[in-house]
Amino acid sequence: MKTYFLTTVFAFCCILFFNSCEKDTINNGEGEQPDNCESAQLWDYPVKPGMEEWQALDGYPEMVDICQIPEDILFCLSTENLMKLCLQYPLFKDIYLFNFIDTGLNKLFNEFNGIREFYKREDMLKELLKYYQDTMQNLSIADAEDIRFQFFVSDLEILLSRYHSQNNDAQENYKKILQHLTAGHEKKSVYVDTYTYQYPWFQSNLYARAKMIIAISPQSIDQIPDEVFGLRANQEAMDIINELSYQLME
User: Fold this and answer.
1) What gap in Å lies between CA 75 and CA 170, rounded to an integer?
2) Residue 27 carries which DSSP code?
3) Which tens digit of pLDDT belongs to each residue from 80-89?
4) Would you say 108 and 86 are in contact if contact means Cβ atoms under 8 Å apart?
5) 3-class DSSP state for residue 119?
6) CB atoms within 10 A of CB 120
7) So what's the pLDDT on residue 113?
8) Are 208 and 158 in contact (CB under 8 A)?
């Protein structure tokens, strides 16, 4: 597979920008929780970028260590709140620093206990799809032009790309994800003038759909350009992903 160079300067700038503009605080989750778990739903990262304590950390390994969710909190968290904490993980944007998103995602899963626990939850897909659908439902031009929102949607799509199941309903779920992602692409396309191919706004959607296409139809991998997996797709690659998406949704 060919290697494609991502613009690391841009990525680092995005990381610094987003670390100073964290997305929404956590809402209390619904569903029954043991009494001693109620306060866990309000847990937040004790040290974040922008804080003096963050600047004082001794390198990347210490940043990773301090961002882990304590186990007594982790297993108490509702799936909804755990999902939001994963999206707010201070080092999440590091996934965009690699030539291929798979490399960044593997690193994320290796380093962060929250994301590993989230993907063990039986209702993780339900929560993630609901959040994605709710996010895209009221998409506006203001949202489409907001780089923070663009990256937030990209983060959701990339998390959807990592869904994997060996259960009997796996194929049904892969198609459901593909349908939601295709609807998201169509919604974004209304604002086609607000993006360039260099940004994840469209690239993450193509990547996530490519992953679902391969999950549904493994032989399709031969038709998908390598650029898609490095968030470097062009119009031709987009046309291929669109065509395969609509074929598999029939």
Assistant:
1) 25
2) P
3) 999 999 999 9
4) no
5) coil
6) 8
7) 98
8) yes
Tell which phi-psi region holds residue 31, choosing left (phi > 0), alpha (psi between -120 and 50) or beta. left
Q: What percent of the chain is helix, strand and coil (3-state, nearest 5)?
A: 65, 0, 35
Q: Which of 96, 121, 146 is the endpoint of a domain?
A: 121
Residue type, 157: E
| Domains of the chain: total | 2
CA 88 vs. chain centroid, Å, equals 11
What whole-number distance in Å separates Cα of residue 127 and Cα of residue 51? 30
CA–chain centroid gap for 51, Å, is 25
Q: Given the structure tokens 């206990």, which residue do they identify?
A: 113
Question: What is the DSSP-derived secondary structure letter of residue 34?
Answer: -
Q: Confidence band (pLDDT; 50, 70, 90) for 47? A: very high
Radius of gyration of the chain (CA): 18
Contact 50, 20 (CB under 8 A): yes
150 and 83, same domain (yes or no): no
Which domain covers residue 36, as residue numbers?
Answer: 1-121
**Same structural domain for residues 116 and 129?**
no
Question: Is the C-alpha dihedral spanning 114, 117, 119, 125 positive or negative?
Answer: negative
The verdict on 110 and 154 lying in the same domain is no
Q: What is the pLDDT of residue 32?
A: 45
Mean pLDDT of 207-222: 97
Residue 76 makes CB contacts below 8 A (sequence gap 6+) with: 33, 34, 36, 37, 40, 41
